[in-house]
Amino acid sequence: MCGISVVLDNNLDFQPNIRKMVSVMNDLQKHRGPDGEGIWINENNSVGLGHRRLAIIDLENGLQPMTYRDQLTITYNGELYNYKELRQELKGKYQFKTDSDTEVILAAYDCWGEGCLARFRGMFSFAIWDQVKKEMFIARDQFGIKPLYYTVVENTIFVASEVKALIPFIDKLEIEDEALRDYLVFQLYLGHKTPFKNIFELKPAHYIKWSKTTGLKFHKYWEVFYNIDEDHTRKYFQDKLHSLLHESIELHLRSDVQVGSYISGGIDSSSIAAMAKLSAGKDLVGFVGKFSSAGELFDESSFARAQSNHFDIDLFERDITHKDFLKHIEDIIYYLDYPVAGPGSFAQYCVSELASEHRKVVLGGQGGDEIFGGYSRYIVAYFEQCIKGAIDGTLENGNFIVTYESIIPNLTALKNYKPMIKQFFSKGLFEPMDHRYFDLINRAPSLGSEINWEEFGDYNPFNAFLEIFNGESVGNDSYFDKMTHFDFKTLLPALLQVEDRMSMAHGLESRVPLLDKKVVEFAATMPSDIKFKDGTLKLIFSEVADRYLCKEIIDRKGKMGFPVPLNEWLQGELKDFVFDTFSSTQAKNRKYFNYKPLIESLESEPRFSRRLWGMLSMELWQKRFFDDHSNFKKLMK
Predict the structure, then answer these.
(1) How far apart are the C-alpha atoms of 370 and 184, rounded to whole Å?
(2) Per-residue model confidence as pLDDT tens digits over 508-522
(3) CA distance 127 to 140
(4) 582 with 629, same domain?
(5) Domain identity same for 364 and 444
(6) Domain containing 285 — which CATH number?
């Protein structure tokens, strides 16, 4: 787990400042790799590779950038979990000099070219320069666990693990209004867009090939296909999923340093921690955050404690307060690079800081809700479609995997979602499924005059939504698969961005065992009623996980999702901070925003909401990056 930097002249001409460029990029990402720094420049100063290292595997010899056979040079961020198996396969052809996964990637690329990506199980983003062919190969993992961004300024290509490392080279920093529209609707960004104009993200499961004659060429190398297996029993799916999860846990425990695990009190992280403990033994420890001063509604640590006691895991707890928010929130926005959905990143930052004090590697439960279907909105959407199917007599056409009678007992899970349901059912009832799911996730209707809508172009996020929701790989048979597929393609990468930034802010490697290629591909073959039956969400995973959970977690009625008590804090400790943020001279002159309605609503009834969080993080982001852009540019002087 590291930070990478790439500078490439499009004409392979001499770049007099290339070492300085790479050095500045490295410095802006030094939190990602506190264990060392490396810079490699080719013979005519037209290609530069930089690296900040967090040493996890082959602590002594895994230094980067690494050169292989005097031809291929790599800068690499991530972990290749099956590197030992690939090394065994390749060692008859190659003489390995290190025990690192970095050298395995180089040998694999030398042997199989871009075909090596199909063999990799792990999280990665890397760039390989071929000195003989004068070609650059840049790749990112299937799920977007590891980040990668790029920009082209005049005739120079810049690539880095974080956006902030590219900003010193942008002459005029502007907001990308299409990405901003995505954020206002989905609270995330679709495709390759970022909220910075002319800075782009390499999409998950994609690679770039570059040569002087072709320029940047983008390719997709992997897709998840929902080829449903109707031939096997529930028992078969349970047993195979159990086996694949064990295999993934074993691979994710490979490390030359000790490993820990988040234990939130939910089934995902708790079961992963238990499985890892049974494999790793006494060295595994757990980490949990809590807001004990805000009361029981914001403290799940009792469940984490019960799970830890049941499996003899040493648990470290972090009590988070409003003082932590005031101290860290501006730095959190800086580490994130851009605004994200919800304040959960703040809690994650604090727990990651705790974990980094005891371990360099930590396991997490990210991905379970998107792979197996764990979001309550799926029940809302399905309930409507079941009613429609019952009225129309179409429940048997394959689109409905539950009946309205069977879903009713599980509607209690929606108790806290009444406002959302009221808004959802208030218009468009019984329209086509894609329109209805868009309405369910669309956040823009809650926004009003605080957005200067006239400043936006003609871009309509709904069209981009349709392309993903109705993707060819998911088919038309299952509404459930379409919903989870959209979230897998959009929400999951957004959550993984938070996972990466909040851990790497503290030089901590976060691993996500549920996002193993074999696990994801197998889950996509499961019939919908294996994952979602009678309104029970994430059923197949729960059936496997239950054997690794304490009674308290099995019996609990619902997971809170690590809520942050911002509403309680806004009544007192945070009030002045929020008012001051929206009332500054710069804030009053934003192109896309008018914060006056927010200020007025706070004066009459101070309440925190997704709307307020979205605007607060947006303003803090503009303050840190746009108002301070000159300080980034000074780094190159």
Answers:
(1) 21
(2) 999 999 999 999 999
(3) 9
(4) yes
(5) no
(6) 3.40.50.620
